[in-house]
Amino acid sequence: MQSYIDVKNGIVPSVCSLDCPDQCGLLIHKEAGKIVKIEGDPEHPVTKGSICNKVRHMAERIYDQNRITTPLKRIGEKGDGQFVPISWEEAITTITNQWNKIISEEGPESILPYSFYANMGKLSSKGMDRRFFNRLGSSQLDRTICSVAGEAGYNYTMGGRYGTDPEEMTETKLFIFWGINAVSTNMHQIMIAQKAKKNGAKTIVIDVHKNQTGRMADWFIPILPGTDGALALGIMHVLYKEKLVHQAFLEQYTIGHEALSEHVKYYNPQKVSTITGVPEEDIYKLARMYGNISPSMIRIGNGLQHHDNGGMIVRTITCLPALTGQWELKGGGAVKSNSDYLTHNIAALERPELQKKPTRKFNMNLLGQALLKEQQPIRSLYVYNSNPAVVAPDANKVQDGLAREDLFTVVHDLFLTDTALFADIVLPATSAFENTDFYTSFWHHYIHLQEPVIETYGDSKSNPDVFRLLAQAMGFDEQPFLDNDAEMIDQALSDLSNPHLSEVSYAALKERRFMKASGTGDLLNHLKTPSGKIELYSEQMKSAGLPALPTYIPIVQDSDYPLLYVPATNHNFMNTIFSNNEKHIQLEKAPKLFINRHDAERRGIEDKSTVRIWNERGECIFTVSVGEQVLPGVVVSQGILGDSSGQKHLVNALTPDRIADMGGGATFFSGRVEVESL
Ligand SMILES: Nc1nc2c(c(=O)[nH]1)N[C@H]1C(S)=C(S)[C@@H](COP(=O)(O)OP(=O)(O)OC[C@H]3O[C@@H](n4cnc5c(=O)[nH]c(N)nc54)[C@H](O)[C@@H]3O)O[C@H]1N2
Ligand SMILES: Nc1nc2c(c(=O)[nH]1)N[C@H]1C(S)=C(S)[C@@H](COP(=O)(O)OP(=O)(O)OC[C@H]3O[C@@H](n4cnc5c(=O)[nH]c(N)nc54)[C@H](O)[C@@H]3O)O[C@H]1N2
Ligand code: SF4
Ligand SMILES: [Mo]
């Protein structure tokens, strides 16, 4: 087969690498070897040729004049952005000399990798990098910033990240988008709901902000942050009381349904209304709709779990489809994540046996504390696939840590990000279009192969290639460091214990580009909970010191600041990706802070005026939007923004670095603030 790189003029297939559930099939149009246009692949069974605006304009990022093309060495103060180009040889030698010195003085655990899934490719995010740091004996990172709390809550109930197949949702009659801004973050889920609407399906959105997703709903239900668990319990109360539960399903497929029916008597709609801000009659109406319309599907979003009680919220909502027997129906159930249908051979890829002894592990949400407070200090940080100076909670603390003179920091990225400004050495990264890799969606059921479609940009290198160079320079001569990309994919897709990938192999993927997980329709007979049933009552949770039955636990009141602050993501950026690209900045326009009219009036704040928002951790300046988009007591902004544009927009300066109830998750949306007119 001809390599896609060799195609100078023409259209070649690809897949989107971004941290987005849709994982679209793409067609890349090339002229003279360069990308001139990106569109959706109409042959992709789920995404069917449509893609978001962000990626439609991806070429402007790939060829952005500010992209870094060579390794760089810092010559100014940390944070001020003065660098000079150096060779790869000098860069690798500088890094490994520093590391050898640190290891001899203070041991390998003084080195910490920091990464996330900005490039979702398995080789790019959990392959040669994991092999390298295992062998190095560095400290390990617990990658908790995104979805762990909710996944833990979902898994206690359902036994794994298994949910409804999006391709079956044409049958769905009721969609509940719960804590997800799907118009921006899962657009094909919206397209499926809109198609189902032609067959009479209804859409409900439950959110703290009437954003673009709330505005397209048949019914938008505003709720106070962190109270969704109580709403779900109120729905259960009505379902049991009005005999809208599916008794035969409960008996056959669940444990704890009797205990639950007693337990939810406490959560009557009157009480739940006081907690959630949802009117009592709306709680009845919602419960009756949920009890009477089938198949129904709950799309469980990330917004729910970025709270102190986020794991329990998701755990509680996850019980609902079982109460009405939705899992038996095509298009019924829920989706939090479908990742486990596509689990590959992780050990073959990451090689845990290369680690000679267990090392300390840091929760990535506590990076600021880790850099500033450790008894045995972290002396070197290696950042890739992530931009912690902006995305991590309590970001001022993180930036204070990054500014430490005695911290040797390496950042591998495509751009001089806010984090890279603090680096001693910056390494240029390839874009995903320049790499070989494989991708699995966490929403639909497909696995994709990516082969390079364009030449490497400048002197940039892929994540696996940089770790191969580092391994060689450190004298790691074991076979795992000699494997090439194709061999690594082959290993990751061989000896699979996951029956859903029984037909998938590197060879098959090379021929077909994407393949669907098989045998995914029989979830109820293969539940991986301890009891093999849907666990409405969970012994496992009890052993972990959590209530065994779904229970409403309020978020932590960490201060007396009067407003709850929810800084979620925006439409035109992907976390911080695109936030430095001119085209996307223009599309996104100026960020706003949404405040309720009552709260604005009490503070003398007028619509479109400039406000300061602050708490004990930091402050931001925003233009305000006054109205009814949020309930009293709540303020919302959109976008994970930084200050380097010269504006005070570092939203994570305000967010707490407390840890959620499950999985070590983040609590971005459980912080409190005050707002004043400037
Ligand atoms: N355009 C775009 N797409 C993206 C991203 C992006 O930055 N931009 N990021 C990607 C990533 S990494 C992820 S994890 C996903 C996240 O995408 P989503 O799953 O949509 O999650 P969030 O954007 O965190 O928040 C979703 C919604 O939760 C609401 N919310 C916050 N707290 C509560 C609450 O207590 N109750 C309720 N009911 N709602 C609440 C927020 O107002 C927001 O509308 O999107 C991915 N896709
Ligand atoms: N306030 C607030 N904060 C949040 C959130 C929120 O909703 N609100 N959401 C949280 C969530 S859910 C997430 S997932 C995190 C996301 O946090 P991150 O994953 O850190 O964010 P990104 O901005 O997606 O990516 C970071 C960097 O990776 C680089 N990159 C992309 N591809 C590659 C590659 O192949 N190699 C290398 N070396 N680098 C690459 C990009 O250029 C970018 O600068 O943010 C979290 N922070
Ligand atoms: S960011 Fe999401 S919607 Fe946009 S092209 Fe990538 S996978 Fe598709
Ligand atoms: Mo995320």
Automatic annotation (TrEMBL):
Source species, domain of life: Bacteria
Entry keyword annotation includes Iron: yes
Oxidoreductase listed as a keyword: yes
Residue ranges of domain 4Fe-4S Mo/W bis-MGD-type in the record: 9-66
Cofactor: Mo-bis(molybdopterin guanine dinucleotide)
Alphabetical UniProt keywords: Iron, Iron-sulfur, Metal-binding, Molybdenum, Oxidoreductase
Family: Belongs to the prokaryotic molybdopterin-containing oxidoreductase family.
Name this protein carries in UniProt: Oxidoreductase
Organism of provenance: Sporosarcina ureae
Lineage: Bacteria, Bacillati, Bacillota, Bacilli, Bacillales
